[in-house]
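Homework help board

Subject: predicted structure for assignment chain

Our instructor gave us this sequence and asked us to write out the predicted structure in token form, then describe one feature. I got the tokens but I'm not sure how to describe them. Can anyone check?
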Amino acid sequence: MNDPGTKKKRKQIIIHVDMDAFYASVEIRDDPSLKGKPLIIGAMPNERGVVATCSYEARKYGVHSAMNIKEAYRRCPQGIYMRPNFDKYREASNQIRKIWNDYAVVMEPVALDEAYLDVTYSAGSFERACEMAKEIKSRTRSELGLTCSVGIAYSKTAAKTASEEKKPDGYFEIRTAEDFVNLMIDRDVQSLYTVGAKTAEKLKRMGINTVRDIQERQDDVLKHFGKHGRLICDLALGIDDRKVVAYKPEDAKSISRELTFQEDVIDQQLLEDVLFLLAMGVERRAARHGLHGGGVTLKITYKDMKSITRSKLVPSCDSAAEIWKETSQLLETIEKRPVRLIGAGIYNLTGDEGRQISIDDYMEVSAEEKQRIIDNKLAELGERYHLDFAGKLEKIFTGTTLYKTAEYMRKHK
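My token output:
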């Protein structure tokens, strides 16, 4: 395992995901008769209010988010106007974030439909990050019937810029600061992150109209904008070392994997076997970052959408054998009825330096013994479901392959 101190020096790899016309897309997905029509979500034309979002067909008429609804109606009287259904959008957002969490070490949501994903260590390389981004797009379409635009870059600003570059249903990469500058150098100052309409107006009154102008007149920008000016100048040069920050602190203090079945499952043996695959995925993610858990969690969502979570303190829990053993025991304690979703995880994370001595250490449970448990379980699964795991384990725990494997197991039980 690499020294954690070395990992901190690795260049950031960040994916920015932005759903395309999110509210409108959810409504169109649920009512295909709306497809191809100018759909406007927000207040009704005879009410006070604004546009929450609109379809791309409505945008052709100049309608956009935050526009006064009466102005939207003036521009597009033939539009279809709907009030937003936030319960529906939150549900879709939760489903989207479950996909994002399969890839990100840390996720920073910006809204229901947008987030930064830190994949520096989960990807390990820019090439793998690009594969992840494409998997996110593919899964979003196949699992949720929605499209998103993704940007992969070395910084948050560049990732955000990249996701906007090819909208809708876009994909774009910005690998280096030089690439970012080459892309942005002759664009309007307002195309730069943090430069809003008022700041852009002030810059233009100073004769600073493009990103190139900011680079060439940094002293003037610093003089008139102070600390914000420093940020503007840095971004114009492609400099942005900001980290992805979890919206909730606990988001960065747990690692979990979840799986939703295509059909509800009542078979306890199958649930236990799928827990084993999830535990293997959690172990691999924890090992990448040199992390150890202080407890395990089991999550279950039943057929009626009722969700429960069970947890147990387990000092220094980081191996698949331990995670599987403990979550299987928790599974035995819950009500037996059709299960829609199952998840396993570890929490109270610490690095190697913060690891506590566990009972396994005292009892000298060796790595070889834990591996023997894993090998035996894999052989058992292979025999039960006619699966051959040889040389395929790494693929099973990435992208959609885990879902396909679990579905194969469900159908061949």
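Reply (TA_rk): Your tokens look well-formed. For the description, you could write something like this. The longest helix spans residues 268-288. That's the kind of observation they're looking for.
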